[in-house]
Amino acid sequence: MNSGSTAAGSRRGIAGTPSRRFALFFLGVVLLTLAAVLTIGAIRVALVYDGTAEAPEARWSIDRTDLTAADRAAIDRAIAGERIVYESPEAAPGPGRGSLAVYDAEANTWHVFRRRVYVDFGTTFGQGAALSAITGLACLLLPVVRQVRD
User: Does the predicted model carry a pTM greater than 0.85?
Assistant: First the structure.
């Protein structure tokens, strides 16, 4: 018998042999790892205004005068209804992470904000992460399906 490629063997496709299956599976793992790394670059923080409160239950409380001029301007814009987005949690106004209560001594009110962390798939990093994840999953599933079929 001839052990060379046959007509049936040439129709196996990209995940035909065990070594190709392993290579494709390995490529899938690499692409999923790349997707995780790219996701870090797509992380954004939105400053969301929740309104005023008499006794705020926020993780961080700060006086408005303790904020920088840029942070005060961002707080004012958020109160006015503008959507404020930062590229890192450290860039958002106030200390630490989590909810923030800013005391305005002039108005004698507390303004409460949420700092919402999310992944923005509209950025270049986010699109790269999504594409890498989809391709990685396909590269993982194709050899598994072939192995189960054979």
Answer: no
Comparing C-alpha atoms, which of 116, 138, 136 is closest to residue 36? 136
Amino acid identity, residue 109?
A: T
Nearest to 110 by CA among 54, 69, 68, 67: 54
Residue 36: phi, psi to the nearest 5? -65, -40
Residues present in the chain in total = 150
On the 0-12 / 13-18 / 19+ scale of CB atoms within 10 A, 92 is buried
Phi/psi at 55 (5° precision):
-130, 85
Q: What amino acid occupies position 127?
A: Q
Nearest to 85 by CA among 47, 122, 125, 53: 47
Q: What is the pLDDT of residues 16-35, one digit of tens each?
A: 677 888 899 999 999 999 99
Q: Which amino acid is at 20?
A: R
